[in-house]
Structures are given as structure tokens and as C-alpha cells.
Amino acid sequence: MNIHKFVMPEVIFGNGSIHQVGESCLRLGATNVLIVSDPGVTEAGWLDVVIKSCRQVGLKYTTFCDVTINPKDEEVKKGCEAYLENECDAIIGIGGGSSIDAAKAVAILATNGGQIHEYEGVDKIQLPLPPQVMVPTTAGSGSEVSQFSVIVNTKEKKKMTIISRSLIPDIAIIDPETLSTKSAHLTASTGLDVLTHGIEAYVSLAATPLTDVQAQNAISLVGKYLRPSVASKINQEAKTNMAMASLQAGLAFSNAILGAVHAMSHAVGGRYPLLHGDINSILLPHVMEFNLLANPKKFADIACFLGMDTRGMSYMEAGRKTIEYVKQLAEDIGVPQRLSDIGVKQEEIRKMSLVAFHDACMITNPRDITVEEIEGIFRKAW
Amino acid sequence: MVNKMNDRQQLISLLTGVQSSKKSYYTELKKMVIELKKKNMQLEIINDITKSFNIDMSMDEMLKNSIDKLKTIFPVERISLSLCENHKLVLTNVYPAHSLYFPIGFVLPKERSLYWQVIQSLEKIFYQIEEDEDLYVEVAVYNALGIRSVLLIPLISKGKVIGVLSIGSKEKVVYDEDDLSFFQQFCDQLAVCIENARLYNEVLTSKKEWEETFRAVSEMIFLIDLEGNVLRYNDAANEFFQGDLYKKDICKLLSINPKESPIVEILETKKPVHRRIHIQQRVCELRSYPVLNEKQNMYAVIMYLNDITEKLQIEAQLVQSGKLAAIGEMAAGIAHELNNPLTAILGNAQLLLRSFSKDDRIYKLLFDIYSCGKRCKTIIQNLLTFSRQDEYRFEDCSINDAVEQVLGLIGDQICKQNIIIQKRLDVSIELIEGNVQQISQIVLNLLINAKDALEEIDIPEKIIVIETKSIVEAGEHWVVLSVRDNGKGIEEQYLQEIFNPFFTTKRPGKGTGLGLSVSLGIAEAHGGTIEVVSELGKGSEFILKLPKKK
Ligand SMILES: Nc1ncnc2c1ncn2[C@@H]1O[C@H](COP(=O)(O)OP(=O)(O)OP(=O)(O)O)[C@@H](O)[C@H]1O
Ligand SMILES: [Fe+2]
Ligand SMILES: [Mg+2]
């Protein structure tokens, strides 16, 4: 690829930046915002912080907090109804990937109308979306900077990937302090998602020098700070760096797209209410083993980013070391190791493979892949 | 394999969005504003068409207006309109005018015609013109004018196709559904307007025709409201009365006593009114009819006035000459019958006279017989001359002869009524060119009228002066006969009317009212006139003026 493009929203990063959410909306011309969130975030008190910030600048607001893990089309529909009924003119998404993806999907329907499944695929959005301000609280999904929104189609039991430039939020506010309320397990799970984003973006067919820089940085930061971050809720340095890792990984994959891990993970997530990071952490090493052949140099690079000494090693050897590192990291932070451990049924592997084969993320996977090969990977990971 | 590679590359660039950008509200707004402007303009155009019919704009102006507005939203360079006329399709308007190719009025052939195709299919046709094709006759036009695409729309009014509108552009335009439906609306409206304009003109033409008929009728026609005011009138009325008659009171205009107003009569009877009236020395026949609205209520009166003076004069002349002819015939018969016995009487009397001396008493008696017989013979002779009706030839004659003839006929009779006739004839009077019999008739009428005027009054000395003379007036030589009496005179109000046929103040049986009318007719036929001067109770003078012989 000789011509490439790098897009990202306005980014506000730093401790306490969450308090700027109201003013950010005001700057975008909002007068009445819809705040999309989920019960967990509400419980952690972050929703109140956002509301307070809105109140302070005199913004009217409506809350919609019925988003579940892996947001569903029906929730999006309800969110849109809330938006229209209350005559909102901007959207705030606060929470993990689910809340932010749901907020984006509500934005689509708010101005374009129709059903969310009509927008599945690339560039199906015709009309501009209302101003969107996103506040991630999990450091993982990268959705706050990406042009993706993943919504579950309840009828067909699958995750729909919607890709459009218009889905890139106007402002992303990343406040590392929000990470302090995360449980150790959630920190580990989202942390591995960040690593997956970094690695998949780095080896992606659509990678560019601009995305490579982001991916490299994200990978190094995860290597250094994920373990301490899982270990302590109050390690500010670790939290801040993991937040930065998440942001940079997000910028990388939003522009370079992902690969087989996410394609397969989407297929699993469409059927089981599992943590996205958990599924990724199980699949990541197996997909890396399969992909190594496609670009040994890049996998060798990753070993360096993770701080390993690869002198005297061939690219393949260094690449294998990277895979071992990933496996070790997963073990260290205590994320699940096998699909069978988290309740995935073996009988569904075939079906999930087919779905994964057609997932948009598969397009940028560095190695050509068949349905059978996907099935093989699933079985290894089961 | 290669293909697959390309596919993949394409998918990747799609995913990373190299060709796409975030949608912006600004562009969206711009699009919407343009869209709104377009819609507004479209509405304005449709509105304009509807309006322009009302203010009676010509079709050319209407098209110009539309195209100017259309241009702001569509790349339209030319509009042409062809209308169906008696199963033919005729080019009627082209705008702008310089984009004319076929002349206005050109009849489009049915073969290979795009326009006809539209008429027959009743469907819009959008046609892109290729440089080197000549499939249709119209394409030559477009090629010559540089038109690259045309939209042809049938004009349908009340389910009937009345023509085709062609909208031409110099570029290859693309119209979407909305545009097409706008053009359809535009044409529907246009069709309605054209149809309306046609109907309106039809009504206008027939109205004009009626108006012209109304104006051209030689009888005077008035439309009068129930108060008697003139609402409308035709040219004949205008010519007769001269000047603006609008809102004039009809009774005053016609010198009718308001109590006898025909309008009042119609209002009462609801029936037509027929009358004969005299206006300005003319006799007119008046007929009035009620004008009813749909509810059968009368709201106006239509009045016809026909000047029948000439007609009556001719009639009168016919009547009188008929009468005279009859008298003449009878007189000739009687004269003839009397002539023989008179000859015998005169012969015998002459013979007997020779037998007596002039001193003899019998001679005196015989001479009386002889001279009375002689006078009878003269009267008979005159009667015979006067009644020679056959020849109305014009010849040189003396007005004095006419006087003598008439006096010979009735002079004695008048004298017997104690009326003195003073004869002042100019012996050197100029001759006139005319018919002595007819002139005599005038003298006779004037004399009888004078006698009648004297008969009715009681004065010590009743005199009729008959005078003839030659005069020069305004460089013309005239021969004048004046008959003057010191009789009862004529009331001033009648002075205008006495020359009208059938005007008489005499009791039935005595006067027919034709004398003066016939006399004036004869005088005019000789290029002359009759004037009257009269004072009530003092007498009247009638002056006959005839041009002298050239
Ligand atoms: N010399 C006159 N003096 C007074 N009135 C006259 C005289 N001559 C005419 N008139 C008036 O004019 C009227 C019209 O006269 P005109 O000779 O036309 O008709 P007429 O004498 O009444 O009838 P006729 O047809 O027998 O002559 C008369 O009835 C009379 O009233
Ligand atoms: Fe992810
Ligand atoms: Mg008379």
C-alpha cells in the first residue's frame, strides 16, 4: 500500500480529564445530551461524575444505562428512542467497549434512521452523526478512537461489525483514574485485549508506518505495566501507562485493522456472554503460531518491543519466543487458558469457524486462511 | 489468484477507509439548503404558471419566465412547445427565440418523430443525442443547436393529450425521480393553463363577435337599467345621438314624457312595448323587451330604435300618388264624359248668340251660359292636365305655371270661402328643372293647408298670399315660392313634427298627415327644401326653395 491514511478523534488524556466531558460537549454545540452507559459503570460512580460535569455547564441530559456486555440491536433501538423522545442533540458514551459501541450505534440511528443491521459492513452510513464524546473506563476496547462499532444481531446470533469514518468520535476523553475501579480480572482481561490489538495491528496487511509506531509503543507498555496494573488497583503509574497503551493500540488497530484473533473472538462473543479480553487471550497465541509464517520479521520485532534479547536468533526463533512470552503473560495474570474452561461447546466450533471466516477483521489477517484452518485453531484452543 | 489479490487489496482499502471521510454536517446542510432552494424554485415556477394565466400573460412570456427560473436549478437552455391542432402536431412556441430551427407553425411529421412518440405513448421520454445519428427528425434540430439531451413530456389536460413540451440542455444531464416528478407537475400545470387560455380565448372571441354584431346592427340598440339609465348602446345609437350616452336617462334622450316611459310600462306589464315616436324631425319605431336573468327576474330592458322616416316618406308618396292616380283616372273619365255635352252646349250657345243683338236681354243670358260653359271646359282641361300621372319626366318648367295650374283647379273654390288670394308672381322668374305636375302637387298641398288654417278661425279678412321670386343665397340661385296665410298658426312644439308622415292635427277623415311629408319628399327630390315660419294665432308661411335650372 503506497497511499494510506491515519484518522483519530480529538484526544484528551490525563488524570481528572473526565471532568471536562460537559464542557467538551458544549464546545461541540450540544444543548441536550444522551448519556449511554451500563449498570457497572453507574455503580462505580462514573456516571454521576459525568452528570455532574454536564450540570456544571448547564447541559440538559438524558441517561440510557441499559447496555449489557456485548450490546444488542434491541438496546440500540431503545437508546435511539430515548434520544429522539428527549430531543437530544449529542451523545456521550461512558464505560467499556460495550457502552461506547452502543453509543455509536445509537448515534447512527438517531440521524440515519432505520434498523442497525442495515448499516453492517463498510461505509453504509449516509448522513452525518450527532456529536459524540466517548469516555472509556476499561482501557481495552479502543473503541473511543476507532471507526468500529460491534453490535449483536439477536436474531442471527452474531456480532455485526459496522465500519465507517463517521463512527470516529469527535472527542475521546481518557482518564486513567477511571481504571482504578476495575477488578483484577477485568484489568487482566482488557490488558490482554490491548496486547492483541497491538500485535494484530502490527502484523496486519494494512499496517503503515504511522500505525506501526502506535502498535510498537502499545506493546512495550503492556509488556512493562500490565502485570503491575493487575497486581494493584492504586498503582497510578501502571494505570496511566496501561491507559496510554490502550489508547495507542486503539489508534493502531483503528487504522490498520485487526486479524484472525478478533475475527474468531467475534464469532465466540456472538454466542456466549463472555469477556472479549478473555476470549482473545485464549486465541492469541494459537493464531500467532499460525500467522508466524506470514511475517517472521514482524513477530521477531515484537519480541524486541517486549524487552527480550533476540540477538543471534533467526526471525522464526525470535517469533516463537514472542509466542511463548504471550502465553507466559496470560498465565502470570491469571486469564483463562482454554475455551473449554470458559464454557464454549465443542459442537459449535464448526459454526463459529464459518462466521469467523466471513468476519471483516479476517481480511487484514497476514496469512491466508481457510475455514478448516480456523476450525483447527479453535480445536487447539479448546 | 491475481484477481483474488486485487479483491483483497480493495477490501483492505475499504476497511482502512482510504477513499472515505467522516460525513460532515456542513456538507449535509449545504446539500439540504440546495435541495430546499431547488424545491422553492420549483414551487415558484409552478406558482408562476398558475398566476401568469390570470394576469393574461402570453405563452411566450410564460415560457421565458419559466425557463429563466428553471435555469437556476437545472441546466436548461431551450424550451419548445408543440400543440395538437386537428390531429396535427404544430410547433407553437420556442424559447429563446434564437433557438428556432423549424419555423413556428411547422407541422411535425408523424414518421420518425420523437414528439409524436410522446403523444402516442403518453409517456415522458428522456433522450440523449449522439453526434452522428439521425433516427428522428427532431435530432437534426438538436444537433444544429448543440442540444445534448432533451426531456419530452406530454401535456395532458382532463385526460386528453394536448401537446408536447421539450426541455433541452446543452449537457448530458441526469434527472432523478424527484426532478422528473417536478417536470411532470410543471407540465400538468402548463397543460391546464394552455387549456384554460384556449377556452378563455374562445369565450373572448365569441363575446367579441357578439359585441361586433351588436355594434354593427343599423338599428339603434340600448341596454337600459330599470331606472331608465343607458348601460350600453351600439354604434348606430352613438351616431344618431352623438356623444356619450352612458348613464343618460333614456326618456330625456328620446324626449318622452317620463309618465309614458316604456321602461315603466315594461315593468308593469312585463311585456314588450312597441311605439312610434318623433325625435328631432325623425320618426322612429321603438321596441323594448325585458331582459331576464336565470331566475326569470327582469334586470334590464333592451330597446331597439329604428329611424323609419325615409321608409314612411316613401310609403306616403306611394299612398298619395296612388290616391291621385285614382282621382286622375276618375277625373279623366268624367272630363271626357262632360266634354261632349259641354261642346254641344257651347256650340249651341254660340249659334244662338249670333241670332240676338248685344242689347237684347236674352243675349246676356245666353252669354252667361256660354262663358260658364267655357269656364267648365277650362277646368276640365286643367283636370285632365293635372291628372296626367304617367310622365314624371324632368324638364324645364316655370314655377308660375304650377301656381296657375293649381289656382285654375281650386282657386275659385277657395275664393268662395271668403278667402282672398293675392297672387304676386315674378313674371321674369327663372326656370327650374323638374316636373310641373309634382311641383303643382306641393303648391296644392300648401294652398289646401293654408285654406284649412283659415277655415277654422273667425277673422274679418282671410288672406292667402302666393308669391314667387328668384333669390341668390350663399352663391346659389334659387327659385322661391311662398304661401302665406293669416290663419291659426302652428304651435311651436309641433313645428318639428309637421313634416313627419302621418302627423296631423286635423280630425280623422279630413287630414291624413301626408301632405307636408310628401311635399318635402318632392322638394328634396328636386334638390330643394321647404321651410316654415309660423306664429300661433297670427299665421304661417311655407317657403319652397328650388334650385334654378343650370
Ligand atoms: N298653413 C298652416 N297653418 C296652420 N297649420 C298648418 C298649416 N299647414 C300645415 N299645418 C299643420 O301641419 C299639419 C300637417 O299638415 P299636412 O299637410 O302634412 O297634413 P294635413 O293637412 O293634416 O293632412 P293631409 O294629408 O290631408 O294634407 C296639419 O295637420 C296642421 O296642423
Ligand atoms: Fe478487541
Ligand atoms: Mg295638408
From TrEMBL, chain A:
It catalyses: a long-chain primary fatty alcohol + 2 NAD(+) + H2O = a long-chain fatty acid + 2 NADH + 3 H(+). Residues 10-176 form the Alcohol dehydrogenase iron-type/glycerol dehydrogenase GldA domain. InterPro entries: ADH_Fe/GldA, ADH_Fe_C, Alcohol_dehydrogenase_Fe. Its EC number is 1.1.1.192. It comes from the Bacteria. Keywords: Oxidoreductase. It is an enzyme of class 1 (oxidoreductase). Residues 187-382 form the Fe-containing alcohol dehydrogenase-like C-terminal domain. One of its GO terms (molecular function) is metal ion binding. Belongs to the iron-containing alcohol dehydrogenase family. This is long-chain-alcohol dehydrogenase.
